[in-house]
Every structure is written in C-alpha cells, then in structure tokens.
Amino acid sequence: MREHYDKLPKHAANHVALSPLSFLERTAAIFPERTALVYNDQIWTWAQVFDRVRRIASCLKGLGIGLGDTVSVMAANTPEMFELHYAVPATGAVLNAINTRLEPDTVAYILEHSDAKMVIADTAFTAIIEKAFELNGKALPVINIEDPTGPFGAPIGPHTYDALVVNGNPEFQWNGPHDEWQALALNYTSGTSGRPKGVVYHHRGAYLVSMGTPIAWELPRHPVYLYCVPMFHCNGWCHAWAMTLAAGTLICMRQFTGQLVFDLIAKHGVTHLGGAPIVLSMLLNTPQADRIALPGPVKIMTAGAPPPAAVLAATKVLGFEVMQVYGLTETYGHIAQCLWRDEWGALSPDEQAELQSWQGIAFPMTERVDVVDRETLEPVPWNGKTQGEIVIRSNTVMKGYYKNPEATETAFEGGAFRSGDAAVRHPNGYIQIRDRLKDVIISGGENISSVEVESVLHRHPDVSLAAVVALPDKKWGEVPCAFVELKENGTATEESLIAFCRENMAGFKRPKKIIFTELPKTATGKIQKFVLRQKAKALESTPTSGEF
Q1: In the list 108, 125, 312, 429, which could disulfide-bond 135, CB 3.0-4.6 Å?
Q2: Which domain covers residue 119, as residue numbers?
C-alpha cells in the first residue's frame, strides 16, 4: 500500500546530489595517465588536471571564497578556463565566465550586478578589467593568468594563477554540493532590455546536460575534442564537463582561424568540435593551400543561428559531419537536435542539407520541447505551417534570472520556459524556427541586444530615431542593421555613425549597415520593426563589413 512506499525516506546511501564535479574525480581515478588537455606544446593528464584543480580550489578557499560567492573569470579558451569549471564550484562558489569581447561598461555592470567577490583574468584583458573597476568606483581582488604564448598585459596586483597551483594543497577535500539545486554558474545573456540578464545554472542541470550530450552526439569513448566554442558561452555548451565524463582529450585554442583548425585536426586526430555557423563558414573560406586533408570523419555540433542549407552541404563535402542543435543560455545550451534519419539517405545533398538545418527534436535529457500557440499555450498542429512559440520543460532549464524575479516569472509563464523563438512543427515532429520573437540578433554565435545598439545610436547628436534589426549575412548568420532618422540639420553619414558606435560599444555589436529613412510607425507612434525586418531581408545580398 502507498503508506509503505512513503515510509522509505531518502538516505545518504541512495540519494547523492548530482553534480558534474563527480566526473573529474571518476575520470582521474580510472584513466589517470590519459591525455586530458593539450595547449600548444603543453600536455596534461587527467591525474595532473585533478591535482591542479584541487590545489587551485584550496587556495581560493584560503582567499575567502566559499559557498555562494561569485567568482568572475575573463579568459580565453586556455587550460586555466577549463580547470576553473571545476576549481571554482569545488569551493561551493559560483563561476561567472565573462564574454571576452565585451566593452568595459558592460563588464563593469556584470561585476557589480553579479556581486563578484573576486576576478580571475588573463592579463590580455587587464585594460578592460581596470576600466571596469574605474567605472564601478571600486576594485576587486584579481588573480592574474599569465599566458606566455598570448598577448601580454600588466598584471593587476600580486596574485597569479600559477601561484595557486604551486602553493595549493593537493589533498584538498573534494566534495560535491550538499544540494544539487545549488548554484553552479552565472552566465549573462543579452536581452531586449539592453542590459544583460544573469542566468543561474544549478549542479543538477549541468550534470544532466553533460550526460545527455554524449548520447545525443553518439560520442565514442575517448573523443578528441577541439574547443572552438568559447567557454564563456553557456560554459562552453557544458562540453567541458561532458568531455570529462567521456574521458576525452580537449584541445585548447586561444584564437580561432580556419588554418589553425585544420592544423590541429591533423596534428591531434580531432574527432569532434562545436561552434556557431560562422565556424563552418570560416572553414569553407579557408584557402585551399591552408587546408590539410582530414585524417578521418570530424563531427561538428553547430548552434547559435540556423545555418544556411548551402553551408551545410558544402561543409559535408570537406568531410565534416554537421549536426544542428538548438538551445539558449537559459537552457544550458543545446536541448534539441536535428537527429539524422535513415530515410534521408536517399535524398539529394541539397534536400539533406535543408532538413539538417531544422532544429529537430528534444535531447535525451530534455523532458519537453514543443511549439505552442502564444495565446492559448496549446500545441500547434504538426503541419509545417502553423507558427507558434518554442517552449521547454527540462531539468536543464535555468534556476532563474539573478536578482530579477519579474523576468523569471515571465520566462516561466504557463509552466514552461518561453523561448521567444517562433517556429513550426513538421509532420515528423521536427521543429523548424521561422522567425525570432525577441529583438536579439545572433551574429557569429554572439547575442546582440538591438535595444543596446539603438541606445548608443540615440546618443549621437544628429540622430532623431533609430531602430535595429537583424540583417541576414552569409558569413556571420546575422548582423545588426540600423534604420535611422536624422534630425533636421543632421549631417551624419553611414561611416561616421558606424565609427561612433565602434567608439561606444564592443566592435561586434556595431551596425554593419545603416539605412537613412523615415521609420514606419503605428498610430500610437510605435516603430513597426516587422516592416524593417522585411526591408533588411531584401538587403541580404548586399555585402556587409567582413570585420567582426
């Protein structure tokens, strides 16, 4: 009877808090001598990584870092960034990996809003961190990462990352969280408000997405993974933890170029890599002289914006097997995949590429990914025509937005996460995005808030009104396109406004094209962005700046 079942409570023997921290301890114990990390000419085994992580965690603890503290990190895809995905949460603290392409104003906002207690930063970003401190009117303790192969910068203060390793305790007690709902990471994502929102991950979600990824991607034992995805993006799509679980080898790279990717694939026998569609485009645009024949099939997971079917087809010719996935920062990255179906093998390459550009079906660890009517929240018909909004229910949905309960409640309205992406569902159940409900532009995998760009444009003395929408771009997927009304005596040009934006925001956020026109408005004066999106789409064939 039911009461007998209910009398069996949880015990330490049968209920352990789920956490990706357990993956490192397991892999280091089973495969201690296998190569874990490779960076340039440096190689670390899993035993060495575990030793280093415990040393680093012990020193962070000694510096006062503990349960619930935010530790902000600004670093490239180097071994230090990987190690901090374990060392920071091993102290009970929360890892806040900051986008290295952000301007000081946004970095200052993140440091303040996140309640950061410490900053760990590559000295290449010293100037940005110092300016952020100046804007906030206060400095934080800094641990300096000094990469001898990277761009040099003056350290901030006396503390160095290497000293943490040298002085740390290799016997540091390795404990997971007492509660799997405990915060693990804090990631900031652009939103329509113009200021980034803090997305909070918990240990349970990170554990489950790391378990689901190897199944969805059909990872073999000991994959060789090239880390092209910036580890500040959804914690590198949580691949740092997933590849540890698979006892893989992670190849780190500080800066992405097509030639370097081909070289590293050939040198290390890379089997897997991930990246936004811009990664695919850069590989395709790598000069033939800089390419090296692939030693075997290389599987690519791509996400960030729907890749053009033509790009998928051309990438396949090079020997890459591309799987399109879909997700958001709020869902730990990918929660849906375009799973290949055997019957597609009889189709033409173009038809296959078109189907592979769909967002697909739910990952194994995702409870529900659906397309619903925005008003009734009822599922739309599976007819490939009726448009609705993608909603997600999963253990890999964020805890919520940090210090923003109103936005959290809105995002979870109706009992699922409201993605803001408009899509259809095809008769086979596969989801395909048709449009973006949010005014966020995804360019080269980077989220850009249209409101933020508009805000900067409105600061120019010649600008009366500005509206920014996504302009389709063959290289970047999307780029910001600004429609501007000048004041009566305004003399600004496209070049001068773009230069003004470059001076006042991160370079990748600036508009790549500016159209001077009277903005279409409703009777109440609201700008009709859907009209501007149609105009921008008609401009798709017009070349934009090749710079990012």
Answers
A1: 108
A2: 1-20+45-176
